């Protein structure tokens, strides 16, 4: 059976990747900062699926710990055929509201880890002429919504470049560009997303299933759902002044304002008739 290494595998899309890959018979190497949660997830998967699950606790923003994961990808015996670079997180607040150390740590996880692990995996896979790399990016990379969006833009362009360099080697590279997905991502960043319409959300199982199908086909970009493929094309070709106006870093502030306005409208529509408000004197 094939073996997959998944980073950020204890929550969100990473956890869904782990379960779906185990369900299709993949042995797993699970990577996460939270060792207790990592071992719990591994035990749950072993109880359900007949696969081996190796745990590799690591904070990918730490260079020494990242190198341990990179070294695991080069193992010639227990080989990794699929790398899923999924680890990532958001920061609440504008660029100047967050300490530069936090920005650096986030970019080390979102960019440097993807670079280092992709390099280690691709070199080893090319020697065997077999393998695939799936980098979780985001449609945010087509926007101007701060450092997170900039890092995802890098991931997308990097993956496209890597895919072209790997052409003809038997190894593929795919970038997953989801929109808003129902996971713990925004909750862990303390971001309220109540102002977004329900139609904008995708479910994690669907996103992961589509990503794995596109990776199996060797597609370079995987954008789940017609609505987001359309939104992605519009964002990509739209005039940059328009993109900046619609997706500037204050988009979250506008979202919160919209949420408050919706709550106020709902409250104003309620026609409450408490007993003490009756006009008939009864």
Sheet of most strands: 7 strands, parallel
* Total strands: 9
Q: Round the mean pLDDT to the nearest integer and report it.
A: 85
Model regions low in confidence, pLDDT < 50 over at least 5 residues:
189-193
Give the strand content: 5-15%
Rg, rounded, reads 22 Å
Helix percentage: 40-55%
Written as H for each helix and E for each strand, in order along the chain, the element string is: EHEHEHEHEHEEHEHEHHH
**Total DSSP helices:** 10
Which sequence of strands runs across the widest sheet? Answer: 3-2-1-4-5-6-9
Structural class: alpha/beta
Q: What is the global morphology?
A: globular
Distance between the termini: 77 Å
Provide structural commentary.
Strand 7 (180-182), helix 6 and strand 8 (201-203) form a beta-alpha-beta unit. The chain has a seven-stranded parallel β-sheet with strand order 3-2-1-4-5-6-9, sandwiched between helices. The chain is built from ten helices and nine strands. It starts with a strand and ends in a 13-residue tail after the last helix. Mean pLDDT is 85; it is low at 189-193. Helices cover 51% and strands 14% of the residues. It is globular. With 282 residues, the chain is of the alpha/beta class.
Topology:
Layout lengths: L2 E5 L4 H12 L3 E6 L2 H14 L4 E5 L5 H11 L8 E4 L14 H29 L2 E6 L9 H21 L4 E6 L3 E3 L2 H4 L12 E3 H14 L3 E2 L3 H12 L2 H8 L3 H19 L13
Parallel strand pairs: 1-2, 1-4, 2-3, 4-5, 5-6, 6-9, 7-8
Helix pairs in contact: 1-7, 3-4, 4-5
Give descriptors for this structure:
single chain, 282 residues, alpha/beta, two-stranded parallel sheet
């Amino acid at each position: 059976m094939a073996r997959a290494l998944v980073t950020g595998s204890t929550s969100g899309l990473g956890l869904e990747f782990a379960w779906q890959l185990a369900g299709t018979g993949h042995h797993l190497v699970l990577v996460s900062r939270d060792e207790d949660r990592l071992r719990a997830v591994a035990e749950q998967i072993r109880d359900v699926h007949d696969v081996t699950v190796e745990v590799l606790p690591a904070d990918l923003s730490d260079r020494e710990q990242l190198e341990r994961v990179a070294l695991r990808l080069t193992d010639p015996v227990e080989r990794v055929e699929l790398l899923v670079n999924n680890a990532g997180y958001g920061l609440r607040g504008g660029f100047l509201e967050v300490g530069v150390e936090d920005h650096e740590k986030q970019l080390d996880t979102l960019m440097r880890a993807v670079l280092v692990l992709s390099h280690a995996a691709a070199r080893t896979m090319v020697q065997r002429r077999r393998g695939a790399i799936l980098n979780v990016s985001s449609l945010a990379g087509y926007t101007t919504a701060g450092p997170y969006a900039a890092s995802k833009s890098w991931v997308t362009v990097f993956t496209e470049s890597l895919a072209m360099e790997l052409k003809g080697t038997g190894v593929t590279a795919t970038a997953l560009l989801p929109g808003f997905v129902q996971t713990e991502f925004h909750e862990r960043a303390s971001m309220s997303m109540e102002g977004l319409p329900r139609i904008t959300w995708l479910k994690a199982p669907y996103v992961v299933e589509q990503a794995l199908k596109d990776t199996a086909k060797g597609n370079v970009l995987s954008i789940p759902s017609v609505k987001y493929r359309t939104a992605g094309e519009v964002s990509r070709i739209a005039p940059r002044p328009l993109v900046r106006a619609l997706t500037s870093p204050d988009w979250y502030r506008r979202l919160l304002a919209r949420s408050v306005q919706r709550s106020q409208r709902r409250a104003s529509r309620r026609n409450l008739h408490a007993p003490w408000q009756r006009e008939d004197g009864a």
